[in-house]
Design a protein that fits this description.
Blueprint (H helix, E strand, L loop, with lengths): L1 H22 L5 H7 L11 H5 L2 E3 L9 E3 L9 E4 L2 E5 L10 E3 L6 E9 L4 E6 L16 E5 L34 E9 L2 E6 L2 E7 L3 H7 L18 E3 L5 E11 L2
Antiparallel strand pairs: 1-13, 2-5, 3-4, 4-13, 5-12, 6-9, 6-13, 7-8, 7-12, 9-10, 10-11
Length: 256
């Protein structure tokens, strides 16, 4: 009888552990992508998204919850147009007119739909630091590169291509649609592990502070930016690079 009792107890414990494991939400990019309701009304959360912990970062009407990088106000090149954040920079060069979330994030999943114009350039920069000694958000945080490479005026390095981790990791795939069409990206920052996806396809995976990451960080563009990539919490920034883009359906989920 003792043997049977122990056997029953072992089965019960195994069942409990298995059940608990099944209840735990995965932080994989694929799981998080599946939680996004692609057919949801623009700039709203569905009940399923709320249940899964997603939060809305843009109401389709105002810049509530956002401000200019190192500013209190919204830079003049940004507007809310037809239910989108629209940036209409001129000239295609670097400009100190990014916008950032009012809240800082450490572990999170971030999604946005975006549309490029011909020859446009932008990016999603995360874990940035705002301080007077920085001019651009990209000086401090890694960037998910968005660019119309087919119509860009200069040749590009592989780490500048659409979907890259800018100046670090080239994209493994190129699942984006061309300028004038909507794309959706997902950025997952799960501790030091970072995944970038476009239209449900992974373009980049890397691990901050790994040997590979350190080697790239200390041998390329970021050598001249001593504070780049060293912050583990900060706002999310949408970059203005002097061109025209649209952004909508901006959502975030804080991860455990």
């Amino acid at each position: 009888m003792k043997t049977n009792s122990f056997a029953v107890l072992a089965v019960a414990i195994l069942f409990t552990v298995t059940a608990c494991s099944g209840d735990k939400k995965s932080n994989s990019a694929e799981q998080l992508w599946s939680e996004i309701d692609l057919a949801a009304t623009d700039n709203t959360l569905t009940d399923r998204e709320r249940k899964n912990g997603w939060q809305l970062l843009f109401d389709g009407k105002t810049f509530e919850g956002w401000h200019g990088y190192n500013m209190k106000e919204i830079p003049g090149v940004w507007s809310v147009t037809d239910g989108c954040f629209m940036v209409d920079g001129k000239g295609g060069g670097e400009e100190q007119q990014d916008i950032v979330t009012g809240k800082t994030y450490r572990k999170f999943a971030f999604t946005v739909e975006y549309k490029l114009s011909q020859g446009s350039n932008s990016g999603i920069v995360y874990q940035v630091k705002e301080a007077p000694n920085y001019t651009y958000s990209y000086e401090t945080g890694p960037e998910f590169q968005l660019i119309d490479q087919d119509n860009w005026y200069d040749p590009l390095e592989d780490w500048q291509i659409h979907g890259a981790n800018y100046a670090m990791y080239p994209p493994e795939a190129k699942p984006y649609r061309p300028a004038g069409e909507w794309n959706r990206l997902l950025l997952v920052v799960d501790g030091n592990k970072v995944t970038q996806m476009i239209n449900g396809v992974k373009t980049v995976f890397y691990e901050k502070y790994s040997d590979d990451w350190n080697a790239k960080r200390n041998s390329g563009k970021w050598v001249n930016y001593p504070d780049w990539g060293k912050f583990d919490e900060g706002p999310v920034s949408i970059q203005n690079h002097g061109t025209k883009l649209w952004f909508k359906n901006i959502k975030i989920k804080e991860l455990k």
